[in-house]
Amino acid sequence: MRTTILGRSAAGLFTLMLVLGGCGGSDPETAASAPAATVPPADLVLRGGKIATVDPELGEVEALAVTGHTITAVGSNDDIAAYVGPDTEVMELDGRLVIPGFIEGHGHYLSLGRAKQILDLNTVANWDEVVNMVAVAADQAEPGEWIFGRGWHQDKWDSVPEDAVDGVPRNDSLSAVSPDNPVLLGHASGHAAFANDAALAAAGIDADTDDPPGGTIVRTPEGEATGLLRETAQRLVDDAVDQYNERLTDEQQEALLRQRVQLAAEEALRHGVTSFHDAGADFATIDFFKQLEDEGNLPVRLYVMVRRQSNEEMAEMLPRYKMVAEGNDFLTVRSIKRQIDGALGAHGAWLLEPYEDLPDSTGLVLEPVEEIERTAEIAVEHGFQVNTHAIGTRANRETLDIYQRVWERTGVDGSELRWRVEHAQHIHPDDVPRFGELGVIAAMQGIHCTSDGPWIPTRLGEERTKETSYPWRDLIETGALIGNGTDVPVEPINAIASYYASVSRMMRTGEKFHPEQAMTRGEALRSYTINNAYMAFEEDIKGTLTPGKLADIVVLSQDILTIPEAQIPDTEVDMTFVGGKLAYAR
């Protein structure tokens, strides 16, 4: 095998071929070119492994060399030996699998860090465990101190109280164990929150408070608030929380934010995530990220979507905030996040037909169609990507309609804009081929499929679930590009778990969720690497282990491409490199 040395133009060509073609390699003898007689020593060499370049021209190789923050060469052990000098760091792979760094295709970066600072309710088995955790926190808190948590999901519990409303407990027991401390507990999906009486009182929510547009204050048959705040109703508590947070000085608040950045980075790097598509930050947060990048204190590369800014603000400010990846960048800003509906678990997904278990509802519209359409026009004007959260069947259809209308009205070729539908979980069969036809990217999360699978039929019924839920195979075969991720902290930022879900569709029940829609292992790996790079206009610098690209590299304990499927979840990340630097070692 010969060594390959390629510049960025060739890397871009190979990447384009990857997007259109497969992951398997061609004959390495024809895909590579010999090095010069004498080459400069590399800074780092990894050798003796199985390196899946995810580049169809390169296939699998044994070794690679890194100089600075980019990959210098890939090839056989003998070929890469030419790059070993007296100061080269050489790491023996001992047969392990090497892949490009995982790219988290949709997550919430600071929320991941914050989730490490508050009560973690992801693994609670029932409501009693939630109440017990809050009771312990209340015993340790000062009177008036707020208690925050997130991660509960009633559909994953082993039981719910008999007097539950809409499948969710009332807050009586929570208020009893924390009478003097407001409690606010976010749902795992982020699309609902649960408050005790003290928190409701602090927010001024009582029997006379109206439901806000796009939200619901869930009530008992007697009209009393149960504590569940669905979708935009969560915002009714924001002012009270902001007032509480004002007790902190500016320095203390910045210290908390910096801690969140580091906590999020530690968790990401531990799972082999080197780049992260951050699904929503306002201009002030982007300013903070820019400050950290300038200091060299962003450990993970961020692709940030502008969020929580009005159309008027974006029309004025977007040109100042556009940041396109250059060199060893850690911050890119060139997209906008909108949200047309909520989550299926909270009955907030916007459906074409009513919910099976809530027949008087077809879900909630969180942001008006006309407002998102205006955002799309602004995006076209300023060269920004539009990424719209759409989970339900009607939400997906409306989003595709918005994109198509705006492209026709503005006279642009929409297929070149790489606009995205975030989540795209439940799609009517008539709309599946529209993704490929329009060039709209489905930014999905494999782990959502298997995590939610056991209870989806309770919301949609068995037949509608089969026809509409997570149709990955149908999307791929009709020409759509699929990205992958975890929507962390909705799910843990475990790329291996989401990869496994993508290829197996195995649920915690031991049954597979409509396995005919599963991805192949090559498709799943591409969905987490080159496809996500393409989704961010960064396929020329990321997503494959091609010489000339960033040396964002992950070493795995097992070969997830060939081991028995059931063993994939046991795979661990042994090492994570970002820009050629070892950022994590197990």
Description:
The chain has 586 residues and is of the alpha/beta class. Among the domains are: 1-101 and 543-586, Urease, subunit C, domain 1 (Roll); 119-245, Diaminopimelate Epimerase, Chain A, domain 1 (Roll). It is built from 21 helices and 24 strands. The longest helix is centred in the middle third of the chain and has 21 residues, at 250-270. The chain is globular, with a radius of gyration of 24 Å. It starts with 7 loop residues before the first helix and ends with a strand.
- Alpha-beta content class: alpha/beta
The description of the largest β-sheet is: 8 strands, parallel
How would you describe the shape? globular
Radius of gyration: 24 Å
Q: Low-confidence stretches at least 5 residues in length (pLDDT < 50)? A: 1-36
- Biggest sheet strand line-up: 8-15-16-17-18-19-20-21
Number of strands: 24
Oligomeric state = single chain
Beta-strand residue fraction: 15-25%
Looking at the structure, the CATH topology of the domain at 1-101 and 543-586 is Urease, subunit C, domain 1
Number of helices: 21
Q: CATH superfamily membership of the domain at 1-101 and 543-586, which one?
A: Urease, subunit C, domain 1
Provide the CATH top-level class of the domain at 1-101 and 543-586: Mainly Beta
Q: Per CATH, which architecture of the domain at 1-101 and 543-586? A: Roll
Q: Compute the separation of the termini in Å.
A: 31 Å
pLDDT averaged residue by residue: 92
Helix content: 25-40%
